[in-house]
Design a protein that fits this description.
Shape: globular
Order of helices and strands: HEEEHHHHHH
Oligomer: single chain
Number of helices: 7
Structural class: alpha+beta
Strand content: 15-25%
Low-confidence stretches: none
Bound molecules: FE2/S2 (inorganic) cluster
């Protein structure tokens, strides 16, 4: 259990040193998301294996500290999960890692990356069937 300042430090570290940041070459999923309320945007990239399990996840975007930290964090959390598991993932583990108290008034920011990724995971089977990657 971390205290509030440690959660803030954790968030700032993800913002300043984003994990898995950049454009992925030849992704299986490329999905854009945004928060219309503020104009912040995120692009999530995923590569999956033959049983639709995530072998790599990356992101790019422009946004507030919490949205970018959340996107960075979720790229770490989804590795090894299947796309079905991602669709069913609750928000709580992400929120808890960022500190519920710190992000509770900014939930839409915190889950921007995760929600975008969930959308990509949901759409993937039908996109795969038609050979489309861009969502
Ligand atoms: Fe836009 Fe946080 S203020 S996602």
């Amino acid at each position: 259990m971390m205290d509030r300042s440690e959660y803030i430090e954790f968030i700032l570290d993800h913002y300043n040193n984003p994990r898995n940041h950049g454009e992925m070459q030849d992704p299986d999923i490329l999905v854009n998301g945004g928060n219309p309320g503020c104009g912040d945007v995120v692009t999530m990239y995923v590569k999956v294996d033959e049983i639709d399990r995530v072998v790599d996840a990356m992101f790019e975007g422009h946004g507030c500290t919490i949205s970018m930290a959340g996107a960075s964090l979720i790229t770490e959390m989804v590795k090894g999960k299947t796309l079905e598991e991602i669709q069913e993932m609750p928000y709580t583990p992400l929120i808890d890692q960022m500190g519920e108290d710190v992000v509770k008034s900014r939930l839409r920011c915190a889950i921007l990356g995760m929600d975008t990724l969930k959308g990509g995971a949901r759409e993937y089977p039908s996109r795969k069937a038609t050979g489309q990657k861009l969502i």
